[in-house]
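TASK: fixed-backbone design
INPUT:
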């Protein structure tokens, strides 16, 4: 798939574009990350970094312009910078000193799918954006209901509303969230 075809797919179906991106460039990103982090990171930390790379690529996809370079170089740059940031964070935390440019063996990707983990992170991030965009008091109702596990009655007391009003607003907000996610091909 060419870079312009991928951009068109991104506009039509972000989820499919994300899957294609991981399928085409997953091994490249894994190789870049592991080359930078192998001396200071555990397997889970390497996989988290790979997932973070794809989240950053997906979030900054609007900045990509095929006239200024290839998608491969765009992804490679993000992978390198993310891995270097991870290296700094891990070595500061562990007081480890090792060279980030050491050559060595590239390990194959783990059995756990970084694609699934990345998709889950993107979904959670998008869901949180949608909840925040609902406006008050709907955002507060959803947050209290699903993040704090409060009952409708407890939420009504906190927000100085009737329990019926909270129930109706919660139902409408959940329908709105479902519709947005459905429109964006998440459901």
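OUTPUT:
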């Amino acid at each position: 798939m060419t870079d312009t075809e991928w951009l068109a797919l991104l506009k039509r179906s972000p989820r499919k574009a994300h899957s294609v991106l991981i399928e085409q460039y997953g091994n490249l990103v894994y190789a870049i990350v592991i080359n930078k982090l192998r001396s200071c990171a555990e397997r889970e930390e390497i996989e988290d970094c790979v997932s973070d790379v794809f989240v950053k690529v997906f979030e900054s996809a609007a900045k990509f312009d095929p006239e200024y370079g290839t998608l491969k170089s765009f992804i490679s740059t993000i992978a390198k910078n993310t891995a270097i940031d991870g290296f700094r964070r891990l070595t500061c935390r562990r007081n480890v000193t090792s060279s980030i440019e050491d050559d060595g063996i590239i390990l194959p990707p783990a059995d756990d799918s970084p694609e699934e983990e990345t998709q889950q992170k993107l979904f959670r991030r998008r869901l949180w954006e949608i909840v925040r965009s609902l406006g008050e008091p709907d955002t507060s109702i959803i947050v209290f209901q699903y993040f704090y596990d409060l009952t409708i009655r407890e939420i009504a007391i906190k927000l100085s509303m009737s329990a019926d009003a909270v129930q109706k607003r919660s139902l409408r907000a959940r329908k709105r969230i479902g519709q947005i996610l459905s429109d964006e091909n998440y459901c």
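COMMENT: Residues 14-37 form the longest helix (24 residues).
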